[in-house]
Amino acid sequence: MDKNGQLTFFDDPLLQGINEAYTFIEAGDFTQAVKKIDDLMTINPDYPGLAEAYRVARFWESRKKAMQELQKGKDTADFLMTQWEEFEAFAQNRGLVWATAYQKAMRFVFFTASEHYTIAFNDRENPTDNLQLLMQLGTCFIRLGEYQHTIEALEYARSAYRSNACILSLLAESYYHTGDVPRALLYFREAFLLNPSEIDIQLLSAKPIIEALELVKQHKPDCSDVREWVPVMAHIHDIFYVKRQLNSSQLETIKKDIVKLEASFQTLDKEKIAQSNVVPRLINRYLWMLDYFEFQQYDQQSLFDIRDRLLAIDKGLFESYFQKKTFSKY
Question: What is the pTM of this model?
């Protein structure tokens, strides 16, 4: 106790004990964690956090032997990631997700997996394997909130695989959380142009993405894939406001995409269109062209043509947008 007779941290052996158990869990010493928790339960089985810590430690203790029998590198890392998926379901069913022990286990699993993916990456020469390993490594770091490590791993991958939406989205997420918002918005915008279906939206918690997802829920509640509508809402509501100038190759690619998507839009029936990604992808590319003709190569007639086409595709979405927007030469 302190001089005023108040109970302090050091007077509570159970608190000290459960913190020791958490330390064991984070270090991957689950056997010692279980032993420590067993001892604490003989004193007070209802002490906050003990039951949750026991379930977490026992789950991973039962898998430690299988992990130790695997080779270092990808096999061990993949095992951990697979078991984590099982653990997440286990934790959800038992209400463990918000427990301290869950967070400690997560740090053990993802830090250990990242170490083994790094070993695997250093041992492999096949560039296809390297890409997959780097993406898995980046995913581990994202889950841990280790955003600078994610950037270091995935900027290397991006140097060889510039057209990968998953890499760009994870880089965007990391740059946002490290304070480089302009680069984050740029990368998000480009990732959602490349291929929204490659993006793991569950890994993204940056405010611009959360805002865009809420808008999708409001305006397109019945859409088949919210990811496809994120760039559309982000444009209309000026969320992805940082934009790079298009080069001639990018411009031609977008034009060709529009031709192909228009062909699908004209030939598919309404039911098939609703089940596909044709409409949001077509709209997104028209919005890129809208920016091009407004800010890069001003052409008022092209702007009017795109406006009319977007209104024809989805008047409910664009009527108020274009009422507020005027096109005039600066």
Answer: 0.83
